[in-house]
Write a structure and sequence with these properties.
The complex is a heterodimer of chains A (367) and B (476). Chain A has 367 residues and is mainly alpha-helical. Chain A has helices at 2-34, 51-56, 60-91, 98-110, 113-123, 129-139, 141-164, 174-193, 228-253, 258-266, 271-282, 284-299, 303-308, 314-317, 320-328, 337-366, and strands at 215-216, 226-227. The radius of gyration of chain A is 27 Å and the shape is globular. In chain B, strands 1, 3, 4, 5 and 7 form a 5-stranded antiparallel beta sheet that branches. In chain B, strands 2-6-9-8 form a 4-stranded antiparallel beta sheet, with no helix packed on it. The chains are: A mainly alpha (367), B alpha+beta (476). Chains A and B meet through helix 1, helix 3, helix 4, helix 5 and helix 6 of A and helix 1, helix 5, helix 6, helix 7 and helix 12 of B.
């Protein structure tokens, strides 16, 4: 009976195990082996010890890839985690239609990275949507500033009036905010109609997102600079990932008792204080998970670099993953398989470190 | 002072009714603000997709300033395009230029006061439909078959026109002519047209909206004056399918890529469902040595980046999995769909999901079958698997989506010829061939088309996608 169960189990597992052994286990072991050789696809591999790993750090493109990958991972993960949490806490309402909107936000995340990247590549063109919106923002800046100035003044006046009547109005009182909004809208319209403030007449913004070698901040040493095209990819990545993480946060937030927020608001906590003192601590386990998934995803970023391709200078967007691919398939030159494998092992190591750190945190949470 | 005030407790100097009214007002306002914020997020997250979809109809999606009011969305142009298509080839929908065509066309110019109106010079140019892949195809040119009747002036009206922000007085002059296709010949997809006038005479209007104005306003250029309604609105989409063709079979590349993507995704779904549920069942239900080791491998496999394993996998496929593929006559599995399918039979993540699901089914359901002496396979196939429908549903959707969108691995395996590619890497070909020339209409159209199957799946099986997020979250 027992023996029969073993047999059955392994029969059930056969297709999976065969695939796992060939395409994962054997592949990983072989990559480790290659990383210690000078294999180039044509000649038999020769053992070279740690030479590939040492050479990595003498290779300018690898150092650039390392810099780009680390910046990319750090900045994108931080920004997207924060924005996803903010968005989730704004949406954490029992409100009709929320499900519809949740689904709508998720759309960019289900489409392929190629589709989204192509669309963003198009919007980053010099005559594209990003530059157009930047132009519009500058053209209408006087009106926008007027609008917000009126909004703030009217809100302050209203809250002060309510408080003078001994009503418990907070600075962000929604009812008063709506009134302030309408007054500001009418006020701005009147001022622009009477010609007191007017849209500015400025030439179209011609910011170069793609074909540029510019890196910021300008004066910093090379390893502290971020290239403009990389920032473009960062913006795109943040845009695509926020909805996924927002949904994960939202699921976690719905378990936080509403009474916590009510108690805090009785104590006079502002929405911002509530966010930092209730929301952030209560979703901490999900935050760890989101940060880990974010770091793993961003460290291995490849698609966007491949799709941006010759639209951007390679050195400004090359990542570790792309470096590996590039050395394996360098076009006209001979592939440097051993060297590529060493870079891949380095990438795997980075990923592993992230996972281990997360495990440690989760364990200490549990204790 | 502020701390003492709370919107949730009634100060004693306010009556209960007043306070409730005050609170209700706040609630309504709050709901309004939340909806406004949700709408704002929707614009941010859907805006780029919608804008790209609308711009994919535009002849030149890079035209500045970007606008949603494009000629392809104007009903007046639809009607004109349908009529012209009827006149050109008797086809209101897809138009064309066929023998016997008699296409009437009118164009109106504004001539500032003091300048003498001049009859435009009408030419049917020899223009290829696009750069890149389209250029290798041998096509017939409308220019070789078309005859333009003499241009006549039909109307003259005084009026004013905006010229560089200033109102200018002058004349609107309308000219009419016909384009004929005498004799016999092939039916041609497009009928391009160029009209040239002296400097100062300005294009104002025409039967069909002008495609572009060139040479400082002198040339009004039309890509196709007999497009038919659909041919006019979905010109970029038609180009997506028609222009890029296989060098060997002349089949539409975009169509081949779509078919390949479907084949790969379908095969991936079938193998994943079967093998992942079998492996998941064994791991969840059966006792055997080595179970823990396999489990560790599953966790590891999810962590190792694709860039580590692709090196060896590439070589394995190159050698046809140690010559195995020679058995069915393929010396190598590179550049073959079989290679992509065989190397992705079942993922560790899918096995993990199925294992988790089977563990949630109570053991009792199997016991009856066990007493009946049913074999292990029957217990799995007849008892447990039917209960796993929800998990299998979710796995189907997620696997299909993953396979359809996959980029890195197909990029490595499928390089030549173009015929063998899947949609995502095919789109990369489009981007490389047309992006440099600034011809974004076709790229956007291809991108939108390739997203449609997933968007349909998403709308229909939304629940599974949103659950998929929590599956991802449950990876721990």
């Amino acid at each position: 009976m027992k023996r029969q169960e073993w047999m059955a189990a392994y029969l059930f597992l056969t297709p999976f195990l065969v695939s796992l052994f060939i395409f994962f286990l054997y592949a990983t072991v072989r990559a480790v082996y290659f990383s210690f050789t000078d294999y180039n696809l044509f000649d038999a591999p020769r053992f070279v010890g740690l030479q590939n790993y040492i050479n990595l750090f003498r290779e300018e493109n690898f150092l650039l890839a390392l810099r780009n990958s680390l910046f990319f991972a750090a900045i994108v993960t931080t920004v997207q985690t924060f924005l996803a949490l903010v968005m989730a806490s704004v949406l954490n309402q029992r409100i009709r239609g929320l499900n519809f909107f949740r689904a709508a936000y998720y759309m960019p995340s289900v489409t392929s990275s190629v589709v989204i990247t192509l669309i963003f590549l198009w919007m980053y063109q010099r005559q594209g949507l990003f530059n157009y919106l930047a132009t519009q923002l500058q053209v209408y800046a006087p009106l926008l500033l007027t609008f917000f100035a009126i909004l703030i003044v009217v809100q302050i006046v209203q809250v002060a009036y309510e408080r003078s009547r001994k009503l418990p109005a907070s600075w962000f009182d929604p009812a008063l905010l709506v009134v302030s909004f309408l007054v500001a809208l009418a006020g701005t319209w009147l001022l622009s109609f009477s010609g007191v403030v007017a849209a500015r007449d400025i030439p179209p913004v011609d910011f170069i997102w793609l074909q540029t070698r510019r890196e910021i901040p300008d004066g910093a040493p090379w390893f502290l600079r971020v290239a403009i095209p990389l920032i473009a990819i960062m913006i795109q990545n943040i845009f695509t990932t926020i909805p996924t993480f927002m949904l994960m946060f939202l699921a976690a937030l719905q378990d936080v008792p509403k009474s916590h927020y009510e108690a805090a608001s009785i104590d006079g906590a502002t929405p911002v204080q509530q966010f930092f003192y209730i929301t952030v601590p209560s979703v901490q386990p999900v935050t760890f998970l989101v940060v880990t998934l974010g770091l793993i995803g961003t460290l291995q970023m490849f698609d966007q670099v491949a799709i941006f391709g010759d639209a951007v200078p390679l050195r400004s967007v090359i990542t570790l993953a792309y470096f590996v691919y590039n050395r394996m398939f360098p076009g006209a030159q001979a592939p440097e398989v051993g060297f590529a494998a060493a870079a891949a092992m380095f990438l795997a190591l980075l990923t592993l470190v992230v996972v281990l750190i997360q495990r440690r945190f989760i364990r200490s949470e549990a204790v | 002072m502020a701390g003492a005030l709370s919107p949730n407790t009634r100060p004693e100097w306010i009556s209960q009714i007043d306070f409730e009214r005050w609170q209700a007002r706040r609630r309504w306002a709050r709901a309004g603000i939340v909806y406004a914020v949700m709408l704002f997020f929707a614009v941010i997250f859907l805006g780029p997709l919608l804008f790209a979809t609308i711009s994919s109809l535009h002849t030149d999606p890079l035209a500045y300033p970007p606008t949603l009011a494009i000629p392809q969305l104007s009903p007046r142009n639809w009607a004109a395009a349908a009529n012209l298509g009827q006149a050109g080839a008797g086809n209101r929908w897809w138009g064309g230029f066929a023998p016997g065509a008699n296409v009437p066309f009118e164009i109106t110019y504004f001539v500032p006061a003091g300048q003498e109106p001049e009859v435009p010079e009408v030419v049917v140019p020899r223009r290829r439909p696009g750069a890149g892949l389209g250029a290798v195809m041998v096509i017939d040119f409308a220019a070789d078959y078309a005859t333009v009747t003499p241009v006549e002036e039909v109307r003259r009206e005084a009026g004013t026109f905006m010229v560089r922000g200033e109102v200018v007085e002058g004349l609107f002059v309308t000219y009419a002519f016909r384009i004929l296709y005498p004799g016999s010949g092939p039916t041609i997809e497009r009928l391009p047209l160029d009209l040239t006038v002296p400097v100062g005479q300005l294009y104002a209007d025409s039967t069909l909206a002008v495609t572009r104005i060139e040479r400082r306003g002198r040339v009004a250029s039309f890509d196709n004056v007999a497009p038919g309604a659909l041919g006019y609105v979905f010109n970029n989409y038609r180009r997506t399918f028609n222009e890029a063709r296989s060098i060997t079979t002349q089949e539409s590349l975009f169509w081949l890529w779509t078919r390949n993507s479907f084949l790969v995704a379908l095969a991936r779904v079938i193998t994943t469902l079967l093998f992942a549920s079998m492996a998941g069942y064994a791991l969840a239900r059966l006792q055997f040595p080595g179970k823990n080791l396999i489990f560790v491998l599953i966790l590891l496999a999810q962590m190792i980046p694709g860039q580590v394993i692709f090196i060896s996998n590439y070589l394995v496929l190159r050698d046809g999995i140690w010559g195995l593929s020679s058995l069915w006559g393929q010396p190598t599995l590179l550049n073959s769909l079989a290679g992509v399918i065989l190397s992705g039979l079942v993922g560790a993540g899918a096995v993990f999901i199925m294992k988790q699901f089977f563990e949630s089914i109570p053991r009792e359901v199997e016991e009856a079958a066990m007493i009946d002496g049913a074999s292990q396979w029957r217990r799995y196939w007849n008892v447990v698997l039917p209960m796993a429908r929800p998990a299998l549903g979710a796995l189907t959707i997620l696997t299909f989506q993953g396979a359809w969108n996959e980029f890195f691995w197909p990029l490595v395996v499928l390089t030549t010829p173009e015929d063998i590619k899947t949609l995502p890497i095919g789109l990369l070909t489009f981007r490389n061939v047309y992006g440099g020339a600034g011809d974004w209409g076709l790229i956007l159209a291809g991108a939108v088309l390739s997203a449609i199957p997933i968007l349909i799946l998403f709308v229909v099986f939304q629940k599974y996608f949103l659950e998929g997020v929590s599956y991802g979250g449950g990876k721990e």
